[in-house]
Amino acid sequence: xxxxxxxxxxxxxxxxxxxxxxxxxxxxxxxxxxxxxxxxxxxxxxxxxxxxxxxxxxxxxxxxxxxxxxxxxxxxxxxxxxxxxxxxxxxxxxxxxxxxxxxxxxxxxxxxxxxxxxxxxxxxxxxxxxxxxxxxxxxxxxxxxxxxxxxxxxxxxxxxxxxxxxxxxxxxxxxxxxxxxxxxxxxxxxxxxxxxxxxxxxxxxxxxxxxxxxxxxxxxxxxxxxxxxxxxxxxxxxxxxxxxxxxxxxxxxxxxxxxxxxxxxxxxxxxxxxxxxxxxxxxxxxxxxxxxxxxxxxxxxxxxxxxxxxxxxxxxxxxxxxxxxxxxxxxxxxxxxxxxxxxxxxxxxxxxxxxxxxxxxxxxxxxxxxxxxxxxxxxxxxxxxxx
Length: 387
Description:
The chain is of the alpha/beta class. Helices cover 22% and strands 24% of the residues.
């Protein structure tokens, strides 16, 4: 494979001020790529990366945006097959329901709707899924299989209310400001925009740096997303945080300004660097103590962020097997790691086993229950799962 193409980021997307380096990630692994177990790992998938910070907007941006066409060429995530994603979508819907508005004549537009799981919550005729990998097994949803910058939202204008939703999509976009502008330009006063995405505040104060990845290009704070929305004459009416999945910030924005109080949490470059240093220190201690004797051992959970966990806990790369329920992954391995992904029926119950999927609060708990039920004697849980 040739070197991965990328664009360098230097300026804040909210205020255009020059960004400062906050977190350095040398030889950071690209995730979601698998190869046959017989093939050699590919060091081209290790990229010198960093996250940059704007103190004016309290916003964090990745230093190198990898070519989106390449990075999503192997995108296999399906919302309905992930408990964490399913729970997050359910909580997103419950957040919407608190507004108690009728959707009878509304058009529901899901931006980044994947397999249309979220749209199934709505029992209305007009439902639209916009996603490069959009599909609907029931064939009851209008599908636009496209990148978002190719969509002109003017085509969805109508006399009825449009309700826009976007769940964990904004952080993946190289120009989220363009999407917000495109939607805002085509919103009526009665229309609503609901967003949820990883929160910079939760990332820093919960020390969940195992959730960084090349696909997460931007981490919005409540301040930076508010600035971006206001630039497009949109205003936050309501918001909340949810730590069950990626440390989520979710909000409702409309054309009408209700002048709600936005509580901005104190973040600065010093706090970010200190939080990251403490995370790395705890990982180092855990890696050198609890994981020192796991050579040729076993793990459970080949989640998409497992290579990131192994980046911070490098002894995980010494495992011989990682067990996972996804049959399509059997006899494969991550492109930057040697452990082979195997069928869980081959687990050695008498040997130590490490939980290697910690991207949501549900994952380590569910895996631990599963392993205890199987009769595993010693289960090792990484520190990122209990920060």
